[in-house]
Amino acid sequence: MCARVTWCKVACLALGGVIYQIYPRSFADSNGDGIGDLPGMVAKLDHLAWLGVDVIWSSPTFPSPNADWGYDVSDYGGVHPDFGTLEDLDRLIAEARKQSIDVWLDLVPNHTSDQHSWFTDHPEYYVWAKGIPNDWRSIFTQKTAWRLDERFDRRYLHQFTAEQPDLDWWADAVRDEFDRILRFWFDRRVAGFRIDVAHGLIKDKLLRDGVQYMRERPEVHEIYARWQELTDEYDPKPTLMGETYVSLDKLTAYYQHLDLAQNFDFCGAGFELAELRPIVEQTMQEIPSHRDPIWFGSNHDHSRMATRWGKGDERRLRAVLFLVLTLPGHAILYQGDEIGLEDGKVPKNRITDAARPPRDPERTPLPWSRSGDEWRDPWLPLSDTSRNVEDQRADSGSTLHYVRDLIRRRKEFTDESYETLPSGKGVWAYRRGDKTCVLNMTGNVAQHEGHTLHPWQGLIL
Questions:
Q1: For residues 398 and 381, what is the distance between their CA atoms, to the nearest angstrom?
Q2: Which of the residues 243, 292, 360, 362 is marked catalytic?
């Protein structure tokens, strides 16, 4: 069993903060072109403030040819015209701050678009080899990750699509470029970054065979140590959150110099007590005392929690939300989680994603009304609008109100301590400061210290 207290050292993130991830193309459309945008985000800030979130984390808003829908960046200092202008982003930051909400952006430092000016003007910024030097494969195609560039009669590395050449982070010039990028956005009052592929920036200098030489190299921590020194120049200090696709045993290392490291063992587990509780306990035992954990069950790359964990059962879905929102540290809600939105249905002729299987179902637009009239000819189909923000806002018994109440209740926890408590079969009980959280993770009625728990019911005592 584990009992511990940690305090968040990042000035911009409140105790037990709730981070709301926006996939901007599918969040809110302000002009009727079927594409969500920055003015649409501004227009919905009241909803997010009412819900009680502390941070908006937006998937990439940078200019991009969209080979990987924004994760192939062609300019780190601008805004994609689909989303608006740099002034629109400044306005989002300013208006969100009025609502006590910080804005984080998505930084993609592992690779750029092949249409970025660097790929033409500074080929030395990228990873090159003569011939095919090793067995490394693209995550998207499972074919060789090396593509011939006839300009140089050499091959460049691409972990994802061929249009996404990997940067060479051994090059001092690359590190200097990203120092400038970070400062540019922090000077514009961006409060933090989620770092894409945070475990994969450094590649083995000898380009040896084996995926262990393409990702998870120990030298990556030197980059984040440098970035922490940079963030210390600002007050409040911006947050660095890593997309750390590593096993739980390796996660602690990323907390050396990242403020938050995403826990994908938790996200990828089944919604079963025997799977999730050991992950939480190990996380709480191993995380450094000056860092806090972060929990989530959905994002733009993974099936929505209502589909994968909720399995169509509203009670089970609320149990999922109860767990994510009552564990210590910080919680991420992906847009639509607050209304129990499930994966959308996307016919084959509407698939846009380069990955296989495609991630379009979890990226379909967020329904704001039952009619769906706010989305005219959206970029991905708007399938089921029976779950929508408008109807649930008007219904005090809805999942939306349940989430809002949980967010309010989590702010009553006095600290970030956690202790697993004895409990009956299928029941997870844990102490949070002076409160006790009890969750029935079964479809049967259960008991806990005189309290009757209905199937999938959670209580804060």
A1: 24
A2: 243
Q: pLDDT tens digits for 295-325?
A: 999 999 999 999 999 999 999 999 999 999 9
C-alpha 155/C-alpha 160 separation (Å) is 15
Q: Which helix (H) or strand (E) holds 306?
A: helix 305-308
Cβ-proximal residues to 393 (8 Å cutoff; 6+ apart), any chain: 47, 400
The pair phi, psi for residue 447, each rounded to 5°, is: -125, 145
Helices (H) and strands (E) in the chain, counts: 13, 17
Q: Which of 196, 265, 292, 360 is catalytic?
A: 196
Q: Is 243 a catalytic residue?
A: yes
Residue 372: which of 86, 116, 23, 29 has the closest Cα? 29
Residue whose entry in the numeric block shows the structure tokens 């903060």 = 17
CA dihedral sign of residues 315, 320, 322, 325: negative
d(CA 448, CA 429): 9
DSSP state of 148: E
At 315, the amino acid letter reads R
CA 105 to chain CA mean position, Å: 10
Mean pLDDT of 125-146: 97
The string of pLDDT tens digits covering residues 200-220 is 999 999 999 999 999 999 999
Separation between Cα atoms, residue 430 and residue 444, nearest integer Å: 20
Amino acid at position 348, single letter? K
Locate tokens 């967010």: which residue?
407
Kindly calculate the radius of gyration of the chain based on its CA atoms and give it in whole angstroms. 22
Nearest to 328 by CA among 224, 411, 210, 222: 411
Place of tokens 């600290």: 415
Determine the Cα–Cα distance for residues 202 and 212; give it in Å rounded to an integer. Answer: 11
Token duo for residue 80:
């994609």
| CA torsion through residues 307, 311, 316, 319, sign | negative
| Residue in the structure block whose two tokens are 């259960």 | 446
How many CB atoms lie under 10 A from the CB of residue 405? 14
| pTM metric for this prediction | 0.96
Report the alpha-carbon distance of residue 450 to residue 460 in Å, rounded: 14
Which residues make beta-bridge pairs with 436?
431
Helix axes 220-231, 172-187, angle to 10 degrees: 30
Please give the structure tokens belonging to residue 363: 């990226």
Span 11-29, average pLDDT? 85
d(CA 53, CA 407): 8
> Which amino acid does the sequence have at 399?
T
Q: In what order do the strands lie in the sheet with 128-129?
A: 128-129, 154-157, 146-149
pLDDT digits (tens, 9 = 90+) for 238-289: 999 999 999 999 999 999 999 999 999 999 999 999 999 999 999 999 999 9
